[in-house]
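Help!! Second protein's tokens look totally different from the first
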Amino acid sequence: MLPLSEGDQQTLLRLAREAIEQSVRKRPVPTTEPAGEALRQKCGAFVTLHKRGRLRGCIGLVEPVRPLYQTVRECAVSAALDDPRFEPVTPAELPLLQVEISVLSPLFDIAPEEIEIGKHGLLISDGFSRGLLLPQVATEWGWDKERFLEETCLKAGLAPDAWREGARIQAFTAQVFAEKSAPAKPSDHAA
């Protein structure tokens, strides 16, 4: 996928915000299709929610099975309501959330020595076990390649050295963008 324009990024952030606000308030999520060919391409994406700088939810689809705008809407709702690590977002939290979107490239096999911290995200799999970490995770935690591989294995429920023992290592890149800050007040249509 080509890099998204600033306008496309802002459209996706708006769609994600609207979907979160409507679903948290138990209202129908808008289904309108945005303009722009790039947003209708099938593409994997993750939506990450932060509250006061801390992770509050993160859900995504790796495979490009739906148009990007639909993937973002669905993942935004799931990040707010269905991330098993957190209680569902409440209406009172909405003004405190910051939305971040990671639009994924297709997966490709990669050798451990080819991994570039900050550029590549990882998917490690063995049998039915799969673990994924976005490119920005290794940078945020200050991990080197080996630690990134180990943490991705742990996320999959595998031994930390499974990447050395035959687990499949795949990588992807991501275009990552976020709201500049959490909104100061709920949006006009979210009351």
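Here's the second one for comparison:
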Amino acid sequence: MRLRLIFSAIPLLLCSTLMATTVTVGNGVGDYSTIQAAVNALPSTGGQIDVTPGTYKQQVTITKPNVRLIGQGSSRSATVLTDDLSSSGSSDQASSTLIVLASGFFAENITIENTYTQEGHTQVPAVAVFLRSDKSVFRNVSVIGRQDSLYVGAQGCTSTTCTPARTYFYGSTIEGNVDFIFGDGAAVFDTCVIQVDEHGSTSGETTITAQNKAFTNYLSGYVFYNSQINASPTSLTNDYFGRPWGKYSTNVWINTSIQAPITAAGWIEFTPGTTNNLPTSFYAEYGSTGPGAAGYTNKTREKYAVYLTSSQATAYQPDTYLAGSDHWTPTTVF
């Protein structure tokens, strides 16, 4: 009888351990009412947070590895993590709605936004997602802001190099108007929508990226793969792929449907007349189509732009570009 009790307790213990790694957040339902409380409750090895439909106004910081944040609604717009902080007087990290500082993060079927500028405040950096996370994956997610919506950075830097951080976005939307994808990380945006919003007026300058690769000796750069650029309104007249925040800024656009009216030059100097980063940056393109692709088709992009061949473009496939020494295959992460 004693032996039977000992053995029957083992399945119960395993069941309890497994249950402790999956928690539910809800407004009036679930284990926790806030996402941060759920994060805090996970073991140090991470776990899954199921978020029921609703709007959650809060800042969330994740410092545990392998945390999964899953919206449980019928669409990504049904579950919204939101805040309205700005970086005026503080850092980009401190002003972010979601801050991820550990590896292996995964988000799916959720919207993450920073509404500060949308609420009528003067436009300043107001970050929705701040990442210093290697091997993070976002599937069917919306990241919404205006200036500096999404920070994708390296894990950290010394005076001579940086530790890479790799992120994979699939089937997601990134929205903003000025430098709204920025930082020095390595990321692939696969089958995504890049939504360019008006910056003050239809002639206001918009820049999708401000990539900031600091050195040549580590993986850093943003690749847009089989994606689409839209604009709201479509009458915008001063739109750019990006501007080089750093000396070795890296942007690659592969098979992009450019519905937004991207200027023929494509890229612009970070601070014209002051910085001189375009000559040392790598801005490349292959297979662009749509109304904003005229500069590519006619080969009239800014003079340092690179027109890739089909064989060169294969180096930027997600599982190739983000592989690293550990041979990570982000397209298989669900």
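Reply: Different proteins will give different token patterns, so don't panic. Residues 215 and 237 are 33 Å apart (CA to CA).
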